[in-house]
Amino acid sequence: MPQGRVHSFDDPDRFQATFRAGSYELLDLPKGRFHAELTHVDFSRLQLQRSDRNGLVSVRSTSLKQRVSIMFLADRDQASPRRNGMEMSADDVSVHRPSATNHLLAPGPSRFSMMSLDSGALAAAGDTILGRPIEAPLQTHLIRPAPGKLARLRALHEGACRLARTKPDAFGRSSAVQALEQDMIVAMVECLAGQDSDKAQRTGGSHARVMRRFEEFLAARRLEPVYLVEICAAIGVSERTLRTSCQDHLGMAPIHYLWLRRMNLAHRALLRADPACATVTDIATEHGFWELGRFSVEYRALFGESPSVSLRRASPS
């Protein structure tokens, strides 16, 4: 049944676990107290999400296999983020290839609107509305729809999220919800079908291709310590090219990114472990941290508590 829900978070782990439309990993977190809100709206075919979050943050996400998702700024006045190394303005829509790994660097408080539709349902909607199917994209890219079409989509998305916040029981009224869903699908298809003729699709060019190979390499060696020279040789690029690509996409050097990923993996492992069986030493060394004193200091600076405290409050699944 269609429904709308609003979630509020002071814990980044709960926030990224609740985030939908694929896996979602916060890398660099905002300094100070974390706060975020997620609004979920589920129609029969369309899924909506809005994220409101404080502070600068770097995010790595992987979209779902069978759904085409899009993202745009919920607030035109917020600072422009970088999506896969490309500056994303309030006039842009990010269109995500299914199963793609993407990077987002938000320079301050961010408010993003997201929606997704099964790839088959999107093709059928395009056929009905335009007389031709809208196919799932072969790569993630930015488009710039006609201003009026994006303004309508933004207004409909905001209206649905406002309904979830103020009148969640309204989603039990099937006729009204069906009409809203249909309006949103039409608006989404019209944005995907057309864009200003003088604004070509942007894909990030050669740096985007480098980052795809980089992420594929890391996926194959997910829990193993890897080194910059080894990575560059495996994906066929120079250290300088990889450094530039990571700086554009992530706002950080590749070595720091690798370190953050391993820290986050260790953090999640500690929170999911059984304190009766696991030790901090075992988990730290499994994730490539051999200097345990240094690991503890850096872990506390990043997550606000010691590794042993995380392990003690673990909830084995």
TL;DR?
The chain is α+β, with helices and mostly antiparallel strands and 317 residues long. Helices cover 44% and strands 21% of the residues.
Radius of gyration: 21 Å
> What is the molecular shape?
globular
Biggest sheet architecture: 7 strands, antiparallel
**Can you give the mean pLDDT?**
86
* Largest sheet, spatial ordering of strands: 1-3-4-11-6-9-12
CATH domain fold name of the largest domain: Jelly Rolls
Helix content: 40-55%
Q: How many structural domains are formed by the residues?
A: 2
Regions with little confidence, pLDDT below 50 for 5+ residues? 196-200
**N-to-C CA distance:** 28 Å
Instruction: Name the CATH class of the largest domain.
Output: Mainly Beta
Order of helices and strands: EHEEEEEEEEEEHEHHHHHHHHH
Structural class: alpha+beta
Strand content is 15-25%
CATH architectural label of the largest domain: Sandwich
CATH superfamily of the largest domain: Jelly Rolls
According to DSSP, the number of beta strands is 12
Tally of individual helices: 11
Descriptive account of the structure:
By secondary structure, this protein is an alpha+beta fold. It folds into two domains: about 5-195, Sandwich (Jelly Rolls), CATH 2.60.120; about 205-310, Arc Repressor Mutant, subunit A, CATH 1.10.10.60. Helix content is about 45%, strand content about 20%. It has helices spanning about 10-20, 120-130, 145-165, 175-195, 205-220, 230-235, 240-250, 255-270, 280-285, 290-305, 305-310, and strands spanning about 5-10, 20-25, 35-40, 45-55, 55-65, 65-75, 80-85, 85, 95, 100-105, 110-120, 140-145. The protein has a seven-stranded antiparallel β-sheet, with helices on both faces. Strands 2-5-10-7-8 form a five-stranded antiparallel β-sheet. Strand 7 (about 80-85) and strand 8 form a beta hairpin. Helix 5 crosses helix 7 (about 240-250). The two termini are about 30 Å apart. The model is unreliable at about 195-200 (pLDDT under 50).
